[in-house]
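== Sequence entry ==
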Amino acid sequence: MTLLAIDWSSVAVKTGQFILSFSILVVLHEMGHFFPAKWFKCRVEKFYLFFNPGISLWKKKIGETEYGLGWVPFGGYVKISGMVDESMDKEQLKKPAEPWEFRSKKAWQRLIIMIGGVVVNIVLAIALFIMIMYVWGEEYLPAKNLTYGIHADTLATKIGLQDGDKIVSIGGKPVDNIETVEAEIILSEAKQLQVDRNGQSVTIPIPNGLVKQLNKNKLQGFIDVRFPVIFDSVAQSATFTQGKVERGDKLIAFNNKPVQFFHEFDAEKSKLKNVDVPMKLLRGTDTVDVKVKVNEKSALGIYFRTPGTLFGTTVKTYTLAQSFPVGFNKCFETLDRYVTGLKQLFTGKVNASDSLGSVISIGNTFPSLWDWQKFWTLTAIFSIILAFMNILPIPALDGGHALFTLVEMVSGRKPSDKFMEYAQMVGMVLLLGLMAYALGLDFWRLFK
């Protein structure tokens, strides 16, 4: 096993975005418990961002509540007097219930306190999607714009796709955004693709194992946009030993091998390190020979025109009024996709070892360059996922407490403190075990 080379600047940017996003989600979620508890006259002993076993990085007591910052970045908590929670404060439960304790409140009040965090996360997700639609709209590369079709990578060629194919539909549903093809195949579990191959309509059956393989590969190794290599700009780090490139030059040969499309150039470039490489360029009607140094990271220090620049993207803009229904739809489409993914996990259509991830996987979803649109989009996605996960009827989660409270409201019988204590312990063991498993998977992926 070998550890991959790490770009620490990229790690720092990803980590910064993750911590900021996670902090926003946790603080607002806990506020969803904090304020209803205060409204119903419960004593809130602690409000913490991140967990603080043993020590706190910062703490300050204001009134009856200690506010603090923990050192274990796996969540946060609000400690409400008289409530069986992750603090497992058994001593307090041995005493008679006080009027300011959670356990002395009416069932409907306790239910509101428990689901407050989930409600806040749902509202936050909707608000963020509305803001994103209003501020940035939606920009994407339409499948119909691909002049040269797609490049079929290893997985795609195995099922019968070919370079130059233009994907028309997935399971009978027309493809608009080329960037969503892989995700659409996984989530729709479609049985076939329809492609335009040299003007002819061709049906490509999708084998059962493709969904599992795509999920294992993290949507990699299937298709890419096929586009020519047109130079756009040159970084200061670029080193030329013969000639220069100019904006608009088209690459037609690299390392003495003919090149028509970017994937051909990229495959050859990735094999080279610390060497001078000859390139043949088309500049207008003239052919130009250039030599450039490929560095230790197989990079040239040259930027190329993107598919979006070459073929044109579609931008959908929305007024504030229009962004509300679109934002609502985006939120619940995201939830639907997440639930579909969970169903595939539990039915064995995807492997848990390929799908589960810890904070490392979550942090890695953020881009290596700070991008506010992507930051808020990912924050909105994680907010609705956090809401769904917390409402699951599992002891130690908000949904578990809410379920016991609903049973009490229907039956008229309140679960004993001892029962709630044991249920909390079982739930905590399950959750900690799952977190440890997910963290182990991430470390295995890093080192394998």
Observations:
- The mean pLDDT is 88.
- The longest strand covers residues 72-80.
